Amino acid sequence: MANNTLPHQLAHQAATQPKRIALRHKHLGIWHEQRWQALRGEIGQLVDILDGFGFKRGDTLVLLTHPRREALLLSLAAQWLGGIAAPLDPTLEEDTLALLLTHLKPAFAFAEEQQQVDQVLANSRPDVRIIYAEARGLSAYSQMTLHHYQRLLQDTPAAARAPLAEADQSAFALYRVNGERHVQVEHFRHGELLEEGRHLVFAERLGRNEEAFAARVFATSGHLRYLLSPWLTAGFTLNFPESIVTRDADRRELGPTLVVGTRDTYQRLESLVRARLPVPDSLLGRFITYALRPDGTLLQRLLGYWLVKRPLRDVIGFSRIRVPLLIGPALPAESLHFFKNLDIHIRTWDKIANWRTLSTTTSRHVPSGQDAAADDIKRVS
Amino acid sequence: MAGAPLLELQHISLSFKGVKAVTDISFTVQQGEICALIGPNGAGKSSLLNVINGVYPPDEGMVGFNGNSYRKMQSHQAAVQGIARTFQNIALFKGMSVLDNVLTGRNLKVKSSWLEQTFHIGRAASDIAKQRQKAEEVIDFLRINQWRNSIVGTLPYGLQKRVELGRALASEPRLLLLDEPMAGMNSEEKAEMSGFILDTQRELGTTVVLIEHDIGVVMGLSDHVVVLDYGRKVGDGTPDEVRRNPEVIAAYLGTSH
Fold first, then answer.
1. Could you give the ipTM of this predicted complex?
2. Contact yes or no for A8/A165 (Cβ under 8 A)
3. Pick among B146, B147, B204 to test the A interface (most A CBs inside 10 A)
């Protein structure tokens, strides 16, 4: 299918439901909404900006940022031009990031703020084009290749051109360093991602009214397959927290219906709930045990729902949760049981990774070269 | 840093019931610089800050600010002119949230009348939105977003100091007076606060006068250092000049106190 790509899917949503909310993000304490039509317009501007920088089919845009709407939009703009988005997790250790950047030698990058700009500058080509989101601390930087995201948008007129992406092209490339300090890559083609997304949408009956929460950067295969792709496929709303440190409060305010989390995510949420629970032997503790008995009477179940489950679900922002997904390593049975007691039925969706090793050097400084030139490609799971 | 100074103290003397707190102090602070006032306890540093922002009228001398000279400036007048300050001991509304504390710093910027605010008419709605936006910008600048709705009294000391800085910044000051902003902090908190003070100067263009006892912090942070001892000025220059000044070494740097 020629149009089976992420940008085509976005264009389809913008055409069929232009006024519905595509993205919501919190900035300066206030939630801001962006409709599909406006989202399409902003990506159109970004496409022109990247094109003006010389970004062309097959080029890679490296993204070094915490979860931000700008990164998502730039990824789609790069793919619009037939390029590849390569998100890197900014929480990786500094030498690991340096190794990955040295390997990638990006010509185009998006960096969240000064720290990430410095990391890209230190490990990239001298002529790397960097778009950054936060200008703080960067006013003294003299590089002509540094560009502020908002200022670029202000200077660029609206534009709309047809996507150049193709279904069998790579949309995303995820990079990692394995235990032997080898750089590895996993590519995700447009068609494959959309197929996975449609599978989830069908199996979980996801619709346009879902509210999904994106608290993690799109730097794992699970987030690409089970959050990004379903968003474009089903056309629901994707919500970004203000920052990684405010994500729990933001989730509480929002009450998402779809969450894609890792084991760490759910274990952290579990600890937040447990911190609110009274000592089991106390009067309140005994009441909670009574009210949560699965084989309880109707009265018990009602009391359990209104006085225990509902308030505790509110604590973690799961008051409206419908589809809590787990990706990556499994949760311990005890944790799964804990969430089940709160009527939160966590489902595991994941697929075996398909990492390719790109270099066999154990040195910090990997010789430059593109993935295609890698001479030692082997499959690992 | 050329051009007319933002702040100029001319022959300031101040005494309390005959006890001289400061004697014949003169120095200038250029627009956009960080100036540190250092000296042993009782040297007159806080008294001088109180003269600058109009809490104490000087016995003698003039305070020049932004091209105007004042024999005696009222505190309210200082705030209107764009002078904000923080205190040695935290002076926040402990029972209020971080956001509400920062919003109190916007009081002078409110344009709507009490009548409009009471009945939520006229300019009230847009005014409230604007003040909230500005307060949120400060909260974001100081990276205290996650404590936005926390009650200030429940926060650790270092964070309370940051909130106090936020309240001062909310008034969009031209001159920021900081009285021991790092007192009682550990080294990590000091480094963090130093970063915010530098950002205040570089990103917001605010001129800063601060009192600080940690000489390492002062020398790393300041463009200009004024040294006081027993109410008199014994040094005035760049950190390097002050470091080499024998009178300063004798009075302060070379001795413990």
1. 0.75
2. yes
3. B146
